[in-house]
Design goal:
- The complex is a heterodimer.
- By secondary structure, chain A is an alpha/beta fold.
- Chain A contains 13 helices and eleven strands.
- Chain A has a domain at 4-116 and 214-232: 3-Layer(aba) Sandwich (Peroxisomal Thiolase, Chain A, domain 1).
- Chain A has helices spanning 22-37, 61-68, 85-98, 118-126, 141-156, 160-174, 188-192, 226-232, 261-274, 291-300, 309-314, 331-335, 339-354; strands at residues 4-11, 46-50, 76-79, 104-111, 201-203, 206-207, 217-225, 237-246, 283-285, 368-375, 380-387.
- Chain B is mainly beta.
- In chain B, 5% of the residues lie in helices and 34% in strands.
- Chain B is built from one helix and eight strands, in the order H-E-E-E-E-E-E-E-E.
- Chain B has one helix spanning 27-33; strands at residues 38-42, 48-49, 64-68, 73-81, 94-100, 105-110, 124-131, 137-143.
- Chain B has a five-stranded mixed β-barrel.
- In chain B, a hairpin with a 5-residue loop joins strand 7 and strand 8.
- The chains are: A alpha/beta, B mainly beta.
- At the A-B interface, helix 4, helix 5 and strand 5 of A face strand 4, strand 5 and strand 6 of B.
Amino acid sequence: MSRVAIIGVGQSEFVRAYPGSVRELAFEGFKDAMRDARLSAKDIGASVVCSAPEYDKQRSPAGVFAEYLGLNPQPTFYVESLCSSSSMGLRLAYSLVKSGLHDVVAVIGFQKMSEISSADSQERMGRGADIQWESPFGTMMPAYYAMYARAHMAAYGTSLEDLALIRVKAATYGQLNDKAVYRKPVTLENLSNPADRMAGPVASPLRVGDCCANADGSSCVIVASEEKAKAFCKKPVWILGLGAATTSVNLAGRSLFTGLTAAQEAGRQAYQMAGLGPKEIDVAEVHDCFTIAEMMAYEDLGFAKPGEGRDLIRAKATYKEGSIPVNVDGGLLSKGHPIGATGGSQIRTIVLQLREEAGAIQVKSPEIGLVHNIGGVGLYGNVSILGR
Amino acid sequence: MAEKKESDERFKKFGTVSFTSLTKTNDFIDYLENGKIDGTRCKECGRVFFPPRADCFQCLASHMEWFEVTGSGKLVSFSKLEYGPAGFQEDVPYSIALLDYGQFKIFGRIGKDVPETDIAVGMPMKTVANRLPNGQLNYVFVKA
């Protein structure tokens, strides 16, 4: 069986408010990846455009971007699974290449969230849940994850300080990431001092410092057949395992509140496809839209047993020098979370790590990396395992 | 329940802001107006659903009957919102929560009158119909 590779990665800087249109924003990530892969538009057989709808006015962005990026007359596809859209795009690109339909596919993620107010964007996000039976109660993403945090605390004794440790780690690396929206240091004191903005309440028990920020950004991942990868690229990174799963959108339809079942199932599939287990992962990017999300990811992916995620962060095992480095690019908590672009940015970090081109955040000689990307409140789970 | 032939938009009354007008489960609103919280049960296979639904994925039948939610459930988790999304800013602070009744769970809000210090994961609560200040209808959880 022939393999499928990633031969180029790129992203824009993630910013509060991008001073341009969505097609111009998409161009930034695309240009970065095309230069990385040393390709021209004619080499791209198809494109997959990934975002969550209703943040900007452009309908059917895939066709618009195809023209702007010089990708006519090649076909293009639009993929949406909320915050995991570009990991789902990677899955589509893999299947397009594996099937032989296309040799080289560009996965372009983008989101421009600054065209609407923060309250409006929370309303959009709230409608990524069950609009008939949940949204009329005034739901928003931080509050849903806060319910998981409270359940995790009640079941295992996880503390607010444990969650704060995750934010402190994120900020440690966010300061080193020149694409990140938040690059300031954060201390435990920032999250425990009631007078500090970071400790301000959002949705109990989560504080401002437990939450990632909205951002504008784009990303691009170029996927190729084994033959094209060997022809175009000195350091292809191979897609070893892909997992994708779903669960009930309404919390009323779920049975677990201390972890995300879609992430667990996606992880199981990806490990099985790759023939690998959690102990063989050298570096990981997990979907830390909130601190509790990273804590649950440790456990859902098997880096720790249920309830023992806190031991990893307390021992700094998920720092760069630890046994399982996680989010050493600062994570969503530092980079910001431009929904459709996030998965591609996570993939980019792991590809750079496996190529040993990650600079100041380089983990020592990683062979296998993992990307965990979640859409909605665990509605969609995507796990991708990459190797060099 | 009353048959409303034209533009049955009863579900517009559900919650502070409703995002759904027409649904085959519109009778839920009539029960709610009468102080009752009802789910649906599949007449073919007996599976119960909350939130109510018109179609059964288990046996693919669309023959439902309504049943009234009675008794109490256990509080699975909750969160108090200090900021609200657009359309809900006048409601804050409020707490969203989930109750586990065993055969089904209910997602909703905790009643405004329940003191925050009294709320704990695992406590028994019951679901009651509620009229919001803007005239809309929802249901809230109160101490059992």
